[in-house]
## 1
Amino acid sequence: MSGACRGVACGLIGVSWWSDRVSPKMNMRILYISVTAPSLRNGGGRHCYANLRALCEHPDAEVAYVGPPLEETLAGLDRVTMLVARPFGVTDKIQAALGGTASSAIGLYREIPARARVGFDVVFCETTKVGFAIAEFAGKATTVCCVHNVELDFMNRGARGFSRLAARNVRRSEATSVGLSDRLLVMHGHDLTRLQGIYAEADIRKRVLLHPVCAFEGRPPLAYGARKKRIVVPGSLDQRYNEVGILAFLAECWPSLQALGVELVVAGRNPRPILKRAVLAAGAVLVENPPSMEEIIRDARLVLVPDVGGAGMKLRVAEALSLGVPVVGTREGLFGYEEANEFGRVVPSIATMADAVREIITDPGLGERLAVMARRIWAQQYSYTAFSARVRAWMDELEPGLGGRGPKLSQR
């Protein structure tokens, strides 16, 4: 299967015998485990795809995949063998619940034949929720865990009942993953500080590599002066921290900005009725479930990220930078983007966002300079070229098969 994957057809159930498929010319055999299908359709999927593709592009790598099926043709995955690739089912959820594990991926993991579990040099886990896999391979292979977010910050702290039990399982898996992984790929320094604050681990910084998100290159940016006088608020509108932030911006900032004669566009997936009504009442434009955000953002003079929470890094910021669009956001919305005041503005609260928006929109020269910097910083830090170079660098430093982190960490 050219350009996408092999072993089994993408999206189908099946097992490929790893020991029969590895190439004798390769000297780094990688087991890749994900709970999210690599994809270009959502932020988490895009980060997984970037990781998987970068692993495959290493000249010495051969990658075996365990996770949900790939439902689209993705370039650069010629070296992927589908070991177990199928959707999660009810049985997987029951296995996870009864076993106290954090992810239904346990069902897929158990389908890997015993003779296909040997011979791996590197085990790459796309989440801390598969601590069971890291625990099995610790000391037998080099274990690498990509920390998409700190689970304590991401999950509902007020959860009760089964949700509270699930949160406890996730935290326990995160402790195992942090404690036993030889390499931790963490998006930014704030998440690293949070991990240090939660888990008692003196040498965690020695094992951490900062690994921010990337945006793939699309169409070239429009000339700043040729763009519409448009402000865009993109995001997953069904996420509570996005919805609350947008509602606050509409109430606290937008009334004072309407006199600027700008168009406000709120775009994203699955907005709830409360947000739909608020956007309509504000005289703004709502674009629900757009097939692509690129053209909406590309023609904008400014992107807003009025988030009040969340974790990890907001990929929509990197996507705005790739299109040369300045960004104004809260500290929570711009975590990880150390250059934020070079390509836009970081504001202390949503209530203060109006001043930053007004400063940029009313000064085309400033807007154009920020747009140039946005594209430059994307190329240097958040492009796939920069991303894959980081992956190749740490892969070259790995000593395949070393592994062995010792006992699990305790939690503070």
Note: Residues 340 and 346 are 6 Å apart (CA to CA).
## 2
Amino acid sequence: MNLRLLKVLLGLLALSLLLGWPVGRASAMAATVVRPAAGSTLGVARAGGAILYDEAGQRVRDLSAGAALKVTARSADSRWVYGALKDGAAGWVEAARLVIFSVGYLPARADFTGPAADRAAAPAPVAARAVSDQLARVPATVVSGTERLNVRAGPATSFPIIATLAPGAAVATLARDTAAAWVQIEQGAGTGWVSAQFVAFQGRAAASLPVAAQIPAPPAPAASPTPGLTGRLVFQERSGGKIYVYDFASAALRILTTGADPALSPDGRTVAFWRGGAENGIYLIGVDGANEREILRRGEQVRAPSWSPDGAQIVFSHVNGEDRCRDAGYGVCLPDRPPYSFLFPLIKTDRWGLARINRAGGDYRDVPTVANARTPAWSDRGIFYTGAGIQVTQDATEQSQNQLVLGEARYQDPAVQPGGGRLVFASLEKDHWEIFSAGTDGANVIALTRPETTLVSPLPHNVAPAWSPDGASIVFLSNRTDSVMTPGPGPWRLWVMNADGSNKRPLPIDALIEYNGGEQVVSWGPR
């Protein structure tokens, strides 16, 4: 290649940057990774808290969700980090229990390998042990995937968490509840209860265990921690992980199934979701956990089901093609044509569109959209979706039914106010996500969330908004904290706010949530 041609190509590359040609491999959620100064970084306890251990691996204290540490060292395998609290208490914490960045830059110490076993506090009164001494101990193994298994004081999620067990941990099971949904295990000097679906027995089932002679009564329900909020939430812990149901009236949290992008039907009785891999398709399940069934199996990926206002049909996004461009580096992907095709490697990405089916899985039809349509939200005003901004289309076959609502690409993931004329959606604000609202015609754009301070990096994110059934409140996912002392990112939690963005507060839901961008994490329906 002669010098003149090289100059021409470099000039074309510079011009493409100025013209904003398509950017390849853009992160779904921008984040800034900061190299820690002087060998330290910040760690914040995730939902569910963490445990601080001393140098000998002895339990020092429990850390509540949102507790912040100045972290100055790590173990050789980076599974543990050493840090100090604001009150001067210092010790080792399991890195997986913290929101923490740049662990690899911390100095490694070889004098700590973690506690010899999970040294949880004795969960049950000594009197309960006298009963368990008479029972046969059946070996079992924790099979909770990648998450630690909660050990509770009784056989229900309404009982407090008294310990956690690592995946693969060996336990001795003693008894069960009457439904065989929970099993009693030996834990330290006492006993605790775990969900039977997350332990594997050696050669037998939970139902073969004897019923416990003493089963703790569920704790008396406290006054509603969320006054004024009604209905149910369904939400995912992560794509492909557990899907939960949370009842505002009772503050009860329970596991429904596994999958992703859960969506409650307009009558609040049925949840639509998708599963990937070998089970790739759209599924339905009763909100009570009954009658789970697959209604659509596709060869391509499917995502983000959304119900029609009458609950008779479901729209979803699916792969319907392929985009090709040439990777020029620095996040720039140029058109797949000469001269770029001679110079840069090819990148192939999936192209997405929308389709709809009835609730039995039949009557399949593609919906008219622009290219790369995602995250549909069906309302009585049409199907709003992400596509080069926010668009609206109709359940029709004519492309003319599609209209642009908001043309800025930073606006994504719309949700439509029930009985009202507002949208809520996520907006990429340089390096973090915030939640905005606008009229369904795109007018009157308003920011509903803002950083408490810009003196932290990275800034926390607010994403995945969904409306309450009465259109008065908005639930959303955030890694902000509710403490002015720790304004930076914390663990992901579900928050709620009024329709105008006022009265933001975290919901009292004890579940670990992961977010990787573009996921329909939560849905709110009637009870």
Note: The longest strand covers residues 313-329.
## 3
Amino acid sequence: MPATTSEKGLGALPFGSMHSKAAARRASGSLGGLQARLPHSLAKAVALFPEKMYDFVSYAYDSIQDPHSDYAVQMQTVCRHHHERFMTAVNQMPEKDRNWFAAKIFDTARCRAIALPEAD
């Protein structure tokens, strides 16, 4: 019969042991990777489904709450390739939101990001 951890002198591993902490770090890293890829993935998705452009543009406020998000940078490509639909979506925003978007997130006239990600 194999020796138990107590018999090996290791003691009982409590809940929250190193094994579960390592698993939590791996899961956190996976989620972080998904979060980091989200702006790029959404830009690709809206290119395939441009009828969702308003949702894409409107999500910009939420996305920049993460200082490392490059959402506004990803919007540059969408703005350039789908400019008319992009501008229609921006113009559908309430005036207050549209003005804030133009001042803080994105220069629609030049298709340039204003909200740039912070360096890691």
Note: Residues 4-8 have pLDDT under 50 and may be disordered.
## 4
Amino acid sequence: MNTDAFLARLLEEGIKPYAEKLARILLTGDIAVVVFEPHASSRPAMRALGWDGKSAVFAMPNNIRKRLAKNIDAVTSAWLTNGNVGRIFVCVHFGTLLVNFVEELGFSIEPGSLDAPIQEQQLN
């Protein structure tokens, strides 16, 4: 599957069906986390983010956001701490996507953030 097709499917199946829940999280300024087709080996890291193992969408707890920002690449760290409204941290397969939502512009991927894997130790 090509990247464009996958991103379109992620949007249609992993983000749009949860628009109301995402909006409630994003409007508070929190970071929403979307879990989409997680690989079994990435589930422990997702649980360390606060995932209950079932929910497709949840708010990233602030203590986890702060801890992660200290132990990850510069692009992700800046994104986690910039305070912008409309941030969606997507956990997909083995990696992540940093997605921004701006009402007038729609969805975009944070420049420089494509598919940065999360290791469970980065969250500790």
Note: The first strand starts at residue 32 and ends at 38.
